[in-house]
Design brief:
Blueprint: H1 2-30, H2 37-59, H3 72-101, H4 106-128, E1 142-146, E2 149-152, H5 153-175, H6 177-187, H7 189-194, H8 199-224, H9 231-246, H10 251-272, H11 277-291
């Protein structure tokens, strides 16, 4: 029983960690909490669903791949869905956030992001209605993976994909010029600008990366559960909890925070019931803010 909870918690935590990366980068570089970030996960899931449906209709295939519950159209649609969601995030910044940043008031950006979240969610409900959608109606059967643990092929595959994306993101942040520029900008944007870093390009890259990773998290959640217009809203609190627990601006911290939140929520289900699962993220968030506001890997700012 505990082992199965751990499997579910790690899978959920990997998805939360992916989504928290974009949230923590936006906060570190642009200095505001983006409440619309959860909606990027929802839009990413719907973008991917539309593309996968079109591919399945065009090529006449959509059969599941081996033991997986979904087929090749979903795999081919995922990168396109991530790109489109990154473009949506970038467009939202260009239309809404960038003009407001000139005023220099963080609270204005936060309120604007909350309004954007409501608008994006309402648009999804208008376009797709509030009926749940599914990438596939196939049934994923749990398979033994050793030590008495069982996991579905979907869980194993999605966890592997999440690990790959995490590895790519870690390489980008530690081994590329863009990653170094992002770290420098998060520390001191003015000094980074004086050093010759194109801060505007860094901001654009941050929105693209954040939106793309949020889309991946939304697709993974949609595969394991279902796609709904409010799925991003339900994911928002765990994302914030993971980002703050790991330390704002820390990519490894966001990943570790996501795993901790995922495991804590999974353990809470048999203890207090699934209806109180979201409260676990809130309790952890409060505890971190009270005990260690900078998180596990965060650094204090002057």
């Amino acid at each position: 029983m505990i082992g199965q909870i751990l499997v579910d918690g790690v899978t959920s935590g990997a998805m939360i960690g992916l989504g928290a990366i974009g949230l923590t980068l936006v906060y570190a570089i642009l200095r505001f909490a983006n409440f619309a970030h959860g909606e990027f996960a929802s839009w990413g899931a719907y973008f991917t669903l539309l593309i996968a449906t079109a591919l399945a209709a065009a090529f006449g295939t959509g059969a599941p791949i081996g033991p997986l519950s979904f087929g090749w159209p979903v795999l081919m649609a995922l990168p396109l869905g991530m790109v489109l969601t990154g473009g949506l995030a970038l467009a939202l910044d260009r239309v809404l956030f960038r003009p407001l940043r000139r005023h220099g008031a963080e609270i204005v950006l936060v309120i604007a992001s909350f309004g954007a979240s409501l608008s994006l969610r309402a648009a999804l409900e208008f376009i797709f209605t509030d009926r749940p959608q599914y990438f596939s109606h196939g049934i994923a059967i749990a398979l033994p993976i050793g030590l008495g643990l069982r996991a579905t092929a979907d869980q194993i595959g999605l966890l592997g994909a999440a690990i790959v994306l995490m590895g790519v993101m870690h390489a980008v942040m530690t081994r590329t010029r863009l990653g170094r520029a992002m770290r420098a900008t998060s520390e001191n944007p003015d000094l980074a600008r004086l050093a010759g870093i194109d801060v505007a390009a860094v901001v654009r890259a941050t929105w693209l990366i954040g939106g793309a990773l949020a889309a991946a998290a939304g697709v993974f959640l949609g595969i394991t559960v279902q796609i709904r217009p409010d799925m991003g809203f339900d994911l928002l609190l765990p994302l914030f909890a993971a980002a703050i627990l790991g330390g704002i601006g820390s990519v490894p911290g966001a990943l570790l925070g996501g795993l901790i939140i995922g495991l804590a929520e999974a353990l809470a289900v048999p203890l207090v019931g699934a209806q109180y699962r979201a409260a676990v993220s809130f309790v952890i968030l409060l505890a971190v803010l009270l005990v260690r506001p900078r998180g596990l890997f965060g650094v204090g700012r002057e």
